[in-house]
TrEMBL record, chain A:
Organism: Billgrantia ethanolica
Subcellular location(s) per record: Cell membrane
CDD domains named in the record: FDH-N
Protein name, UniProt field: Formate dehydrogenase iron-sulfur subunit
Known role: The beta chain is an electron transfer unit containing 4 cysteine clusters involved in the formation of iron-sulfur centers.
Keyword entries, A-Z: 4Fe-4S, Cell membrane, Electron transport, Iron, Iron-sulfur, Membrane, Metal-binding, Repeat, Transmembrane, Transport
Family matches, as PANTHER family: FORMATE DEHYDROGENASE, NITRATE-INDUCIBLE, IRON-SULFUR SUBUNIT (PTHR43545:SF6)
Compositionally biased region (Basic and acidic residues): 284-318
Gene behind the chain: fdxH
Domain 4Fe-4S ferredoxin-type as annotated: residue spans: 32-60, 94-126, 127-156
Cofactor binding: number and manner: Binds 4 [4Fe-4S] clusters per subunit.
Requisite cofactors: [4Fe-4S] cluster
Region ranges (Disordered): 282-318
Bilayer-spanning residue ranges: none
UniProtKB/TrEMBL annotation, chain D:
Cofactor dependence: heme
Protein name: Formate dehydrogenase subunit gamma
Domain Cytochrome b561 bacterial/Ni-hydrogenase, chain residue ranges per copy: 12-189
Lipid bilayer topology: Multi-pass membrane protein
Source organism: Billgrantia ethanolica
TM spans (from-to): 20-39, 59-79, 118-138, 158-179
Cited InterPro entries: Cyt_b561_bac/Ni-Hgenase, Di-haem_cyt_TM, FDH_cytochrome_b556_subunit, Formate_DH_gsu
Main location: membrane
Biased composition (Basic residues): 212-223
Subcellular location: Cell membrane
Keyword RNA-binding appears in the UniProt entry: no
Alphabetically ordered keywords of this record: Cell membrane, Electron transport, Heme, Iron, Membrane, Metal-binding, Transmembrane, Transmembrane helix, Transport
Length: 318, 808, 197, 229
């Protein structure tokens, strides 16, 4: 079966689409989730390389700026980066916190909400939020919509790119490339339920090893994400290269894309209609015969006065 | 590895020391993570830097580079004095109870018999006390002052917590904590494993560091156990295989060795190697040495090898030196004593110490042949690469041939991983352009030489003219043919002691037990015997089932020897044949024979009552706490300072300059002149690899170049502050031998150490990046490293040297 | 003239306007946006089981190539990933293994034999036959000139110490074994590999 | 009925004014048509008018830039006559009389009535802001460099401002259709005195006064030549 067909029946949300996508056939589909256990990450970047290899991405060869991070940030050709932090904990012990940063595949995706191009961003029944470059117009709204600053616009084709959670692999029964490559089992993949269970197990393990604040990062602000973290210090996500405390779609974006859209559009239509109805009831505004008359009278009076003055001059009257 | 990758998951304590497994072997490291998660194991890292391994470790202790013997010697001291060692194991399975010759002694950092003039030991006294049958005397109470145990106890009594702390620069409490964790594994149901790599081998005392670890493991009863062992993670994909096949100056396949000049007589040559047991009834498996040697000569010289000519004994070159190792070779090359050199998939200009010397040496060659899939710095050593490699081609008369060969993806064959697994792989595509497999290239050269000798004659042509060459396509021997050859086959019918026919003429042999010394068998590498039997290619087996849940997967590929996965596994059972602990059981005596979840490393039918020792390759049948005359710098490991040390003297022997550095190490005059002092080069430097790169290969790969694009050095925050260096600044790192420029990574992960009452800063220097490839051009790290090696292996001291750091 | 619009005319205008715009809507309407995942790139690939060539963990890898090894086709490797059957790696790979593709297809791969003549500053392409012949000649000349059959003490030593070799510890056992038997038959002792570096 | 007796003779908008107005008007309409699709998918198919979605995205900002430039000139031209006067306020108070055509009750009106002045001021407010917010979110030229919060602010304000401007536009256009003769005024430039007197009596008075003076002067010249019978 061709991917398109698989998809068409499994898209539960489409960007810039007012009517609901087919939802009925989601019964048998388990949402998927990628778990990233930061406590097991050695920052080897296997995931980063595997991602580029699978997705045929070759970024520029950059520079070293005095840290292990490279590439330094997400780009249209780098859909995930490892972010390294040297953190001294309360006991004064050094911890090397290494976080794999990529699209979180929000259950309530800000990019999708912001996108004006129908079908350029879709959310599959399994939870993957995918960019469909063919329909992307490169307006950059997805960037403003994303609470995690993930999408990147290409200077080459002006289109927006980000991690697809290897939707092509997942739809063919494989795990994402990054997950498969991970040497330490820091990245795991499976159904949402299984991953949430595993996350709990891993959290308990960390608590047994003295990380009392260990926990799962699965932010409610975006109805949870299909990429979740296990953090040693879930109480302060900020120390992991500024992982947002409690991310949600910016109120500004909601204000712009939420109710405003339909209401304003309606208002515009309404305005036109009102005008039409007003014309039909009150009728046009036009000057009448009286104005014409008045003007003629004015002119007549004027001519009279001028004639009189001429006469007076001729007769030399004072 | 004595054990194997998956077995690490059975460990209770993993010590990452002298290695950085997460960085260098991430996938093998998976089994450490599994041990932590499923076996509640702890991971301890002892390293100069807080490494990627440390990032996921349960405990980290910093240490000054090159002081591991002190750290582990102290552990030995602690285990013995606190009685926290596995006494039954030590008594039964080690040479602790054997008595040592009276001449043996140790004074002020030197063992007896040191000849200061030529820097060598006379090792005569380094022996046991023997009775008239040549058997060692024993004291089962371990109380005799001359027994190995007591001598060892005395030797390490100097390694107190304070001494160790001042030598290593590791805080006392951290040392004690690691020692305690290790001591816990003295329990029979607990095992600890050492994961090490070049961080132990690349020191002037490398071999002895590893010996120290082995002693610790014997004391704790962790050898031959599940989740135990001393595990060399090893470097290249087939470095294990090349070692097994003996591609080293003094070796022959299967750890057989070449004769030296004095071994003019074949019988003596064999007797010296076919070692008799030193303890009654022990197996001492090397006693069968001649079977392996003769079978090898039959494989190489076929019918030309006869009893009459001692199986072509004189066709083997004899060693005029201990080793013709690379340091020795490049010294001679530098002297102009070498005319030709072949580099097969090897990049000495980048990989050998003191690059300037290597460049000069190569420039004095008449011809250089580089066989490689990639461009290498070595092949272009004559080419001017600006500031990174500034030479004048016109002044270099070396004729350089560059021959393109296949990559792994374009050939069939096997490689041996560090678990000793021979794994067969298949060709996926043809090589690019005109590239040929190495076998075709070597055959191409050899067959032409052979023809020239046929036509013109020349110096000692016999071995060349008679080299057995039975391959279907002589110009390109196939991997299958070669593999069948090193497995071995019967030239004539082979019979056992009772005259039963066990192998028919022409059949592949099943294991080395069938080899004969009478010329009726041929075998290219006796330890590989069994890899390609009449049953076919065992190395291509892909049954990954693990019926015992022990992680042995006996049906996957083929492991030497005899498909055995854990060496010395007899030691996993008590002397009475029952496992030390159910959760650690590997093999056990079932009343008639040895059985278990691995191939027993022991005669299958030797009952416990026979009390044969588990270390069957040793003459004592026991683990050697006392190395006798096998180690150049002494039977017990002793700490000596690196040849470039940041402190003035060896804190253990401050008053004996002879005992400052390894007394057994060899160093050439010019190289000694090129050693720096801490006055001029104050910082201790260590070179290493990163996980994003593999040596000087992956800098040619776009994907890896992206992941780690530019050369950098790691500098601790306090040193950086001292030198006014900020993250991202360009710095110049200089040693007595040259300088490199790189970006500074300023980090909390390298802390200053208090060593012998002095603050020592360490500088980390990754070695990838050169002046070729996709990454940013850079100076080669080995511009800085000193040309001095380990006394036994001559492995260069890449891990400990002195540098100065300047901001650019 | 004056533009005068009566009520009726206005209705007409309105209607016309509506018509045009809605025509625009229908006429110019873009294709319905169909979401589609990327084509699954492994479809129809030739899969070969292999082992990573880098470190000594010996991870299993699967090499995906286009082409069926037909005589008229030169197969082209385009993807490498971990072999899930492998007991050690279980499908995972490190960043080096994950990037194997770019090693196989590296710009720096050598494609034909070359020689750099003494004092020259450039490579010259040569044939395999020329390469083999010249190298064999060099080696034989050096061996004949410097082979030591007896040392100073008159002991038989039969060694060749003026030409050396470094063997590749990333090459196969078969290559290594073949290399070893050749090197020793020549009497070479200056012979080493990465194991001691 | 016929208004033919008094033909247009008063010049209301000069040629440059008209040109400016229509250029601005056209670009404004194009902006609305190309902008609406990004505002609500309901208008998506309008992108077809501009050669597809991406082309629409590319064109929109350039048209906007074009409009802004012209609008500057236009604003200068209309500024003075758009200043509010007391009677304008009164006019606005009686907006219901305006809408129900009870013009006789309305206060006197100058050249522009309060409604027209409002349009001017609303546009003067909206267009510069639309320009700024538009530039802030301009992909790929500017976008990437602007901090994300600012871009979000820009996006939302751009939408609201556009809405305001569009509503104003609709009212403006409707008035043009509703008030007979004003459309012609912007097309031809001239209006009839009657129209002027009805919709802009103050302006009408001014114009008549000008005309009277003009004729008087010309007559004086004639008499000095002293023609006699």
């Amino acid at each position: 079966m061709r991917g398109e067909q698989v998809n068409l029946q499994n898209i539960i949300a489409r960007s810039a689409t007012t009517v609901p996508s087919p939802q009925e056939r989601t019964g048998g589909i388990d949402p998927v989730t990628k778990l990233i256990d930061v406590s097991r990450c050695i920052g080897c970047k296997a995931c980063q390389v595997a991602c580029a290899e699978w997705n045929d991405l070759r970024d520029e060869v950059g520079n070293n700026v005095g840290e292990y991070d490279n590439p330094l940030d997400l780009t249209p050709n780098t859909w995930q980066v490892m972010r390294f932090d040297e953190y001294e904990n309360e006991q004064g012990n050094l911890e090397w916190l290494i976080r794999k940063d990529n699209c979180m595949h929000c259950a309530d995706p800000g990019c999708l909400e912001a996108c004006p191009a129908p079908g350029a961003i879709v959310q599959y029944a399994n939870g993957i939020v995918d960019f469909n470059s063919e329909h992307c117009i490169g307006c950059g709204y997805c960037v403003t919509g994303c609470p995690f600053d993930v999408p990147r616009i290409s200077e080459v084709d002006g289109k927006s790119y980000k991690c697809t959670l290897c939707s092509d692999r997942v739809f063919h029964g494989l795990e994402p490339a990054c997950v498969k490559s991970c040497p330490t089992g820091s990245i795991m993949f499976g159904t949402r339920d299984d991953m949430l269970d595993l996350a709990e197990t891993r959290t308990n393990f960390l608590k047994r090893r003295g990380f009392d604040n260990a926990g799962v990062y699965n932010p409610e602000g975006v109805d949870g994400t299909h990429v979740i973290y296990v953090l040693q210090h879930a109480d302060k996500p900020g120390i992991y290269s500024a992982l947002p405390e409690n991310p949600s779609i910016s109120p500004m974006v909601s204000a712009w894309k939420g109710v405003t859209k339909p209401l304003a559009s309606a208002a515009i239509g309404l305005a036109a209609l009102t005008g039409f109805l007003h014309y039909a009831t009150a009728g046009p505004k036009e000057h009448g015969e009286d104005d014409e008359q008045a003007v003629r009278d004015d002119e007549a009076r004027q001519r009279e006065r001028e004639a009189r003055e001429e006469r007076d001059e001729r007769e030399g009257r004072p | 590895m004595t054990n194997h990758w998956v077995d690490i998951r059975n460990a209770d304590l993993i010590i990452g020391m002298g290695g950085n497994p997460a960085e260098a072997h991430p996938v093998g490291f998976r089994w450490v993570m599994e041990a932590r998660e499923h076996n509640d194991a702890r991971l301890v890292v002892v390293d100069p830097r807080f490494t990627r391994t440390a990032a996921v470790a349960d405990y980290f202790a910093e240490i000054r580079t090159g002081t591991d013997i002190a750290f582990l010697g102290g552990l030995i001291h602690y285990l013995i004095e606190s009685g926290r060692f596995q006494r039954d194991y030590v008594l039964a399975y080690t040479d602790a109870s054997l008595l040592v010759a009276d001449e043996f002694g140790f004074e002020d950092g030197l063992f007896n018999g040191y000849d200061a003039d030529n820097g060598e030991y006379e090792m005569e006294g380094w022996q046991y006390q023997y009775d008239e049958d040549g058997h060692a005397l024993r004291d089962e109470t371990l109380q005799h002052p001359r027994c190995v145990f007591q001598l060892m106890r005395q030797h390490y009594s100097r390694y107190t917590l304070d001494v160790v702390s001042s030598v290593c620069g590791t805080p006392r409490e951290k040392i004690q904590h690691v020692w305690d964790m290790a001591a816990e594994t003295a329990a029979p149901d607990k095992t600890m494993t050492f994961l090490y790599a070049l961080g132990w081998t690349q020191h002037s005392i490398g071999s002895q560091i590893i010996r120290t670890a082995a002693i610790v493991q014997l004391l704790l009863g962790n050898m031959g156990m599940r989740g135990g062992g001393v595990n060399a993670l090893r470097g290249h994909s087939n470095i294990q295989g090349l070692t097994d096949l003996g591609l080293l100056s003094d070796q022959l396949p299967g750890y057989l060795t070449l004769p030296d000049d004095d071994e003019q007589d074949y019988e003596d040559f064999i007797l010296e190697r076919a070692r008799p047991p030193l303890v009654p009834e022990e197996i001492s498996y090397w006693r069968y040495y001649e079977r392996f040697h003769v079978s090898l000569m039959k494989a190489w010289y076929g019918d030309a090898a006869t009893e009459a000519n001692n199986w072509c004994y004189d066709w083997l070159p004899k060693m005029g030196e201990d080793l013709y190792d690379i340091l020795h070779t490049f010294e001679r090359m530098h002297q102009g004593e070498i005319n030709g050199y072949l580099c097969q998939g090897f990049n000495p200009l980048a990989a050998f110490p003191h690059k300037a010397k290597v460049t000069e040496a190569l420039s004095r060659l008449k011809f250089l042949v580089v066989i490689d899939p990639l461009r290498t710095e070595t092949a272009e050593f004559w080419m001017n690469h600006g500031e990174y490699h500034d030479v004048d081609p016109a002044a270099i008369d070396t004729e350089v041939f560059r021959l393109p060969t296949t990559s792994f993806a374009e050939e069939d064959g096997t490689i041996v991983n560090s678990s000793r697994w021979l794994q067969w792989f298949w060709q996926a595509a043809p090589p690019p352009g005109e590239a040929k497999p190495d076998t075709a290239i070597l055959a191409g050269i050899f067959l032409r030489m052979q023809r020239l000798y046929q036509e013109e004659g020349g110096a000692f042509p016999d071995p060349i003219l008679n080299l057995h060459w039975p391959y279907r396509r002589p110009e390109e021997p196939s991997p299958e043919e070669l593999a069948r050859e090193y497995n071995g086959w019967a030239l004539e019918d082979v019979f056992d002691e009772d005259r039963n026919l066990v192998v028919r003429a022409g059949e592949q042999i099943e294991d080395f037990g069938f080899l004969r010394a009478d010329g009726s068998t041929a075998c290219g590498c006796w330890i590989f015997a069994g890899c390609w039997t009449e049953g076919g290619n065992q190395m291509a087996r892909r049954d990954n089932s693990d019926p015992y849940g022990s992680g042995q997967t006996l049906g996957w590929a083929w492991s030497w020897p005899a498909n055995r996965r854990i060496l010395y596994n007899r030691a996993s059972a008590r002397p009475d044949g029952t496992p030390w602990a159910a959760n650690k059981a590997v093999v056990w005596w079932d009343g008639e024979r040895w059985v278990g979840n691995d191939v027993p490393d022991f005669p299958e039918d030797s009952p416990p009552e026979a009390t044969q020792g588990p270390f069957i390759m040793n003459q004592t049948g026991r683990g050697q706490l006392f190395a006798r005359d096998r180690m150049k710098e002494g039977p017990f490991p002793e700490h000596y300072e690196p040849f470039e040390t940041p402190i003035a003297s060896n804190p253990l022997h401050p008053d004996n300059p002879l005992a400052k550095h390894n007394p057994g190490a060899r160093i050439f005059p010019q190289d000694r002149e090129n050693l720096g002092t801490f006055e001029e080069f104050p910082h201790a430097a260590t070179s290493y690899r990163l996980t994003e790169h593999f040596h000087y290969w992956t800098m040619h790969n776009r994907l890896n170049a992206i992941a780690q694009p530019e050369k950098f050095v790691e500098i601790g925050e306090s040193l950086a502050q001292e030198l006014g260096i900020a993250k991202g600044d360009r710095v110049r790192v200089s040693s007595k031998r040259g300088h490199i420029d790189a970006v500074a990574v300023v980090t909390k992960r390298i802390r200053p150490l208090q060593v012998a009452g002095k603050t020592v800063h360490q500088v980390g220097i990754p070695l990838h990046w050169g002046f070729l490839g996709e990454t940013k051009k850079a100076h080669l790290t080995n511009t800085l490293t000193p040309s001095v090696g380990d006394a036994n292996t001559q492995t260069p001291e890449y891990k400990s040297f002195l540098v100065r750091v300047d901001k650019l | 003239m004056t533009l005068r619009v009566s009520r009726r005319q206005f209705f007409k205008l309105g209607a016309a306007g509506m018509a045009t715009s809605s025509m625009a809507m229908m006429g110019f309407a873009p294709d319905p946006a169909i979401a589609s995942i990327r084509h699954f790139k492994l479809t129809g690939a030739k899969i070969t089981r292999s082992n990573c060539t880098y470190c000594s963990v010996g991870c299993g890898v699967l090499i995906y190539a286009r082409g069926d090894a037909a005589i008229n086709n030169i197969d082209d490797i385009y993807h490498v990933e971990g072999d899930p059957d492998h007991p050690v790696s279980r499908g995972s790979l490190c960043p080096k293994g994950a990037g194997l593709l770019d090693y196989i297809r590296s710009e720096s791969r050598l494609r034909y034999p070359q020689v750099r003549e003494a004092g020259s500053s450039e490579w010259k392409r040569i044939s395999w036959d020329e390469a083999f012949t010249r190298i064999a000649r060099h080696m034989k000349d050096d061996r004949d000139a410097n082979f030591i059959t007896e040392n100073e003490e008159g002991q038989t030593v039969n060694r060749w110490t003026t030409t050396g070799m470094l063997a590749a510890s990333a090459s196969t056992n078969e290559t290594a074994y073949c290399t070893h038997r050749i090197a020793r038959s020549l009497g070479m002792v200056v012979f080493d590999n990465q194991a001691r570096v | 009925m016929s208004l033919a007796k008094t033909d247009p003779q008063l010049l209301r908008y000069g040629v440059w004014t008209r040109l400016l107005h229509w250029l601005v008007a056209i670009s404004f309409v194009l902006l609305v048509l190309s902008g609406l699709p990004f505002f609500h998918p309901f208008f998506w198919s309008l992108t077809g008018l501009f050669g597809g979605p991406t082309m629409t995205r590319i064109l929109h900002p350039w048209i906007g830039l074009f409009l802004s430039l012209l609008f500057v000139l236009m604003a200068i031209r209309f500024f003075k006559e758009s200043l509010f006067k007391r009677h304008d306020v009164q006019w606005l108070k009686q907006i219901d009389d305006v809408l129900t055509n009870r013009d006789e009750k309305l206060p006197p009106v100058g050249k522009n009535n309060a409604g027209q002045k409002l349009v001017f001021w609303v546009m003067l407010l909206c267009i510069p802001l639309l320009l700024i917010t538009g530039v802030l979110m301009w992909q790929p030229l500017v976008g990437e460099e602007v901090p994300i919060t600012l871009r979000r602010l820009a996006s939302v304000s751009h939408a609201y401002l556009a809405f305001l401007a569009i509503i104003t536009l609709i009212i403006h256009i409707y008035s043009g259709i509703w008030v007979k003769g004003s459309f012609q005024a912007m097309v031809r430039g001239r209006v009839s005195k009657a129209w002027a007197r009805h919709h802009h009596d103050l302006w009408y008075e001014e114009e008549m006064e000008k005309e009277r003076k003009h004729r008087e002067i010309s007559r004086r010249h004639a008499s000095r030549r002293g023609e006699s019978p």
